[in-house]
Recover the amino acids of this structure.
């Protein structure tokens, strides 16, 4: 435990460059396209049994590592790897280290990251995405804002002088933006007309009146007896005494059940995929992809276009599976999200969720109003950004 904490603390304090420490070296590396843990272990002369001892859920996590993921390696003075930290998702990472007995060990541990509540206001002077990147240097945030307003705003009609206000939670790992930058409330102007989006307790976004632009798009891809496992990024397993993740929904269903496309798209993969066994992956519009795993057979080929509800495969029990089922995964911009948020569609909020939404929206609307008023005054007297942020905070406290 001490060695683990020392390594994590060392990485945090030494930024993101190769740094020597008593003749040891911490290096940043990038997970490449097509790279696998098995190949990584073999290349670095680490026993392959670490891979073969993984259970089905851990192997799936390794198959889901995003391309260009930044990971860290600690080597001794002879160049031998002592420890590795490899992010598997937004919450968990693989930790490989040499134990006191000289043997390599692998475990999945929580990622240490910092979170900060942030607010952003921009007066557009150029292309919106370019202005956001210039202001924040946060590509993930720019992408999230664009995705949030894509059905509401025509970004080509945004004029010089239009404004953007965003309240969000920023995540950083080892000093760099990491994972999801969760937007809690946002307003964007399109030709001077304000458009709002607020995050509700159901995980979806609505405007100030509680209306949504989402439609019932993705469908449940098969008939099933029960849901045997739900989506989770990080969960402590009380029996196994370890953290687990499950990037999708498992539908328990007999072998041979028809598997249908959850949404119209294009087949980009049809073959074996590690612990997933026989797998089909579809690419959809707006950055979405769906994955169908543990199949018995395929009914489509790579490059084929399919429509919502079209037969694409038959369910099975291939790969590392404990019983016949379909593992259904959904990703947005190469990040796994809960399929239930897109499959389950409600026409609006009600009850306690609606009351909580109304209360939260009222506060954010007042904060935005205060910020715009302060900005209007500051443009006349030349108030600095620091003073603007301070004034907005004080105005919000008065309003609340």
């Amino acid at each position: 435990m001490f060695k683990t904490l020392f390594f994590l603390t060392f990485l945090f304090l030494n930024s993101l460059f190769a740094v020597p420490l008593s003749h040891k070296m911490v290096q940043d590396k990038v997970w490449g396209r097509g790279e696998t843990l098995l190949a990584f272990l073999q290349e670095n002369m680490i026993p392959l049994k670490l891979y073969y001892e993984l259970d089905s859920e851990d192997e799936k996590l390794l198959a889901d590592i995003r391309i260009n993921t930044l990971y860290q390696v600690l080597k001794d003075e002879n160049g031998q790897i002592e420890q590795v930290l490899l992010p598997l998702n937004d919450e968990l990472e693989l930790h490989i280290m040499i134990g006191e007995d000289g043997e390599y060990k692998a475990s999945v541990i929580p990622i240490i990251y910092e979170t900060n509540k942030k607010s952003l206001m921009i007066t557009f002077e150029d292309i919106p995405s370019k202005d956001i990147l210039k202001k924040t240097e946060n590509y993930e945030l720019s992408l999230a804002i664009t995705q949030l307003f894509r059905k509401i705003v025509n970004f080509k009609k945004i004029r010089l002088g239009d404004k953007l206000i965003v309240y969000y939670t920023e995540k950083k790992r080892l000093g760099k933006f990491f994972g999801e930058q969760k937007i809690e409330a946002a307003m964007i102007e399109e030709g001077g007309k304000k458009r709002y989006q607020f995050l509700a307790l159901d995980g979806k976004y609505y405007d100030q009146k509680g209306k949504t632009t989402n439609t019932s798009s993705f469908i449940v891809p098969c008939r099933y007896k029960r849901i045997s496992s739900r989506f989770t990024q990080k969960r402590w397993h009380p029996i196994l005494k370890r953290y687990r993740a499950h990037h999708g929904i498992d539908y328990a269903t007999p072998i041979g059940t028809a598997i249908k496309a959850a949404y119209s798209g294009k087949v980009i993969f049809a073959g074996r995929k590690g612990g997933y066994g026989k797998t089909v992956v579809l690419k959809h519009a707006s950055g979405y992809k769906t994955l169908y795993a543990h199949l018995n057979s395929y009914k489509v080929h790579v490059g084929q276009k399919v429509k919502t509800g079209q037969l694409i495969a038959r369910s099975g029990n291939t790969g590392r599976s404990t019983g016949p089922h379909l593992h259904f995964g959904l990703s947005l911009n190469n990040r796994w999200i809960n399929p239930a948020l897109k499959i389950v569609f409600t026409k609006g909020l009600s009850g306690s969720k609606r009351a909580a939404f109304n209360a939260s929206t009222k506060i954010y609307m007042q904060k935005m109003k205060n910020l715009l008023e302060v900005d209007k005054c500051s443009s006349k007297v030349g108030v600095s950004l620091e003073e603007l942020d301070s004034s907005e905070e004080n105005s919000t406290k008065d309003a609340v």
Observations:
- Residues 2-110 form a domain with the Nuclear Transport Factor 2; Chain: A, fold (CATH 3.10.450.350).
- The mean pLDDT is 84.
- The chain is about 25% helix and 35% strand.
- The chain has three domains: 2-110, 114-214+350-399, 226-343.
